[in-house]
Amino acid sequence: MKSNAEQLYIKKLTPDATLPTRGHPDDAGLDLYALENGVVAPGSGVLARTGIALMLPSQTVGLVADRSSMAKKGIKTAGGVIDAGYRGEIQIVLRNISDVEFQFSKGERIAQLLILPCLTPAVVEAPSLDETSRGAGGFGSTGL
Length: 144
Prior knowledge:
By secondary structure, the protein is an all-beta fold. It has a single domain, classed as Deoxyuridine triphosphatase (dUTPase) (Deoxyuridine 5'-Triphosphate Nucleotidohydrolase, Chain A, Distorted Sandwich). The chain contains 1 helix and 11 strands. The chain has one helix at about 70, and strands at about 10, 30-35, 40, 45-50, 50-55, 60-65, 75-80, 80-85, 90-95, 100-105, 110-115. Strands 2-11-6-8 form a 4-stranded antiparallel β-sheet, with no helix packed on it. Strands 4-9-7 form a 3-stranded antiparallel β-sheet, with no helix packed on it. It has a two-stranded antiparallel sheet with strand order 1-5. It is globular, with a radius of gyration of 18 Å.
């Protein structure tokens, strides 16, 4: 079985798991669902299970991102890179940046999955790099 841009193979690791869905056909993200009830205390984080594993197409990466409705409540995702070769359970790190306890329920949408092309060039040490108009300007270098 080979995954491609037209199909995403998902394996339920438990019968209670919910397959990812899109709210609308043109939505970029697939909604990911909690396998179990959970609580995130203010200023802390939890690892929320989804009960699914997936097979990303070659040369793609899965990025776990916030759902805007949860971000509005102060619930953020963290550490959300899924490599194409990973076949374990997708778990979501939820961080509560609010000062109010957050409860989520089994079957609730807790994050979204974006699948993007990913270049994997070979690393080559270089004695120098081309000059650009930006150069080494970083944090705040544009004055904005």
